[in-house]
Write a structure and sequence with these properties.
- There is one protein chain.
- With 153 residues, the protein is α+β, with helices and mostly antiparallel strands.
- The protein is built from 1 helix and 8 strands.
- Strand 7 and strand 8 form a beta hairpin.
- The longest helix is centred in the first third of the chain and has 50 residues.
- The termini are far apart.
Amino acid sequence: MKSKALSTVELLIVIAIFLTLMSAVTSQMLGLFFTNELEIAGQEMHHTLRRANSLAVNQVHDSAWGVQFDEINQSYTLFSGTGYETRTTSRDQVFYLPDTISYSAVVLNGSATGVVFNQGTGRTSQYGTITLVGSDEVKVIMGVSILGGSTLQ
């Protein structure tokens, strides 16, 4: 008479199939996590650029405002002033990129490492692009126009 229980071989086959499916699902979930983290970091940086522009247009603290990109420390700083070196440091707000994200390129007019939006008009002479890259080589590109607008791609 045949037993209705699973044999050891059948049980091992079921476990192997289960583990294979779990590894595929886990790798897909990690990929989505890293892509989501990159999108959030890009949105936060884009928001900071738009905020600097808005603060400059509205002449908050009677000042120009800007964002400085630090590729070494993987951070960026919202600052008040006509330049990063001459800024009012008490108003600095520093933001750090997550460990899985880094700058791929900061390409701004005049080889600048930051963008300053002019007081009142919000225009800038440091237009160009900032590219972030995730650990899975997916990229997010932000553009800054001469009129002070910014885009996120």
